[in-house]
Amino acid sequence: AAVEPRATCATGQTVKNAACCALFPVLQDIQNDMFAGDTCGDAAHAALRVAFHDAIGFSKTQSSFGTGADGSIFLFAEQELTYGANLGIADAFNLEVPFIKKHNISVADFIQFAATISLTKCPGVLQPPFMMGRVDAKAAAPDGTVPEPFQTVDTILARMADAGLTAADTVALLASHSIAGADDVDPDLSGLPFDSTPSVFDTQFFVETQLRGTGFPGSSGNQGEVASGIAGEIRLQSDHLLARDTATACLWQANVNNQAHMAQTFQAAFAKMQNLGQKNLVDCSDVIPAPPSLPASAATAFFPAGLSHADIEQACATTAFPNLSTAPGAAVSLPQIVQAPLTQGDCDDDGEGKFSNFFLRFAN
Ligand code: HEM
Ligand SMILES: [Ca+2]
Ligand SMILES: [Ca+2]
Fold first, then answer.
1. Which residues are annotated as part of the binding site?
2. Cα 364 to ligand 2 centre (Å)
3. Plant heme peroxidase family profile domain: from which residue to which, for each copy (predicted)?
């Protein structure tokens, strides 16, 4: 049988493609310093979100939308971070730029690599693949490439399709909101989780977005926010509508209590998203560490305490919502996600701040 060629890196690991050796020092720095003690918390969430906002700057038909996963969101931060849809991405900029400056991989590769490593911090994620070799942007993406939470399902799906992502891909990608929350949708409250388990990649997000909305974690009337079903949880209008639209409701519900389906479809759609607009990439999947497995206690979806099937707004017309058991005890209010101390960079988010991206672009 043919023996696959392998390379031994200076750092000691063995990989199929020698080019991937460049990632080990970056991996070590990300693990030890950038994420430090963050186990699928605020820093991991920030690194995951920015990977989407960079990659989605791409269109199959309009070259002016950019070259996708090309680092433009940091390289042209002084422009892209002023777009409303990118509010809060300054956190990822401040988190990552000091580390980007220390390494010689492309900014585009760093953003997607950091997101891939962020996923390996989250129990329940399937081993993510990783491709390397993205070419950095020559120009900013224009405003309007990133979907907004106040848009209609049709608008969001059309934008995603224009970038090459189907409705099924979109629902699959939104499993990311199982390990996520919002800092800026409610102007007074940060770290509001999208599901009751924001540090576990489980199917609770798909259960909880189907609950009848009963209240707001803080103020009402915020653009892009609708009532959620659990105290302390925030619900995006876009997630609420995607869970109920005839185009996506059955895709959405198919994730409920089906961890394997959610994890597999997310793995495939995320890999597709990470490579938008890029070609001639090298497979460096063998650099990526294994994610922690899902604890047995998180393997089965549940109705939050005090709620039942009667609180579900059934939307998929062809399949009944799965029967789940109710978590024991009295209804609880979810805690806010602890904010990472993202103070290392120097980007301020008020639209008139300084941007160390100029250093990234010209002085390296
Ligand atoms: C398709 C439509 C989508 C919309 C409208 C949307 C909207 C949002 C909004 C409004 C927030 C809250 C931001 C804040 O206030 O801090 C958020 C957070 C987040 N989103 Fe999405 N999103 C979408 C898709 C995605 C995708 C495809 C991914 C990744 C694959 C993603 C990953 C995240 C993550 C990880 C967070 C949490 C960020 C943090 O805690 O710092 N989202 N999203
Ligand atoms: Ca981009
Ligand atoms: Ca979760």
1. 54, 68, 70, 72, 177-178, 195, 197, 202
2. 19
3. 44-320
At 335 the pLDDT is: 96
pLDDT digits (tens, 9 = 90+) for 301-343: 999 999 999 999 999 999 999 999 999 999 999 999 999 876 5
For 22-363, which CATH class?
mainly alpha
* Amino acid, res. 14: T
The pTM of this model reads: 0.96
167 and 251 Cβ atoms separated by less than 8 Å: yes
Question: What does the domain layout of the chain look like in residue ranges?
Answer: 22-363
Q: Among residues 359, 339, 328, 273, which one has the least CA distance to residue 55?
A: 273
- pLDDT of 351 higher than 60: no
Q: Which ligand is nearest to the CA of 58?
A: 2
Structure tokens at 289: 């560490």
- Torsion sign over Cα 206, 148, 88, 163: positive
Q: Which residues line ligand 1 (CB under 6 A)?
A: 42, 45-46, 48-49, 52, 88, 147-149, 156, 170, 173-174, 176-177, 180-185, 224, 236, 238, 270
Pairing of strands 325-326, 302-303: parallel
Annotation: binding site for Ca(2+): 54, 68, 70, 72, 178, 195, 197, 202
Write out the H or E segment, with its range, that includes residue 266. helix 259-274
Does the ipTM exceed 0.90? yes
pLDDT above 70 for 46: yes
pLDDT digits (tens, 9 = 90+) for 169-201: 999 999 999 999 999 999 999 999 999 999 999
- Position 5 scores a pLDDT of 73
Measured CA to CA, the distance from residue 24 to residue 45 in angstroms comes to: 22
Q: Which uninterrupted H or E stretch holds 282?
A: strand 282-283
Closest CA to 69 of 34, 23, 35, 116: 116
- CA–centroid distance, 175 to ligand 3, in Å, is 8
Confidence of residue 37 (pLDDT cuts 50, 70, 90): confident
CA gap 116, 108 in Å, rounded: 13
How far apart (Å, rounded) are the C-alpha atoms in residues 94 and 126? 28
Phi then psi for 215, rounded to 5 degrees?
Answer: -175, 175
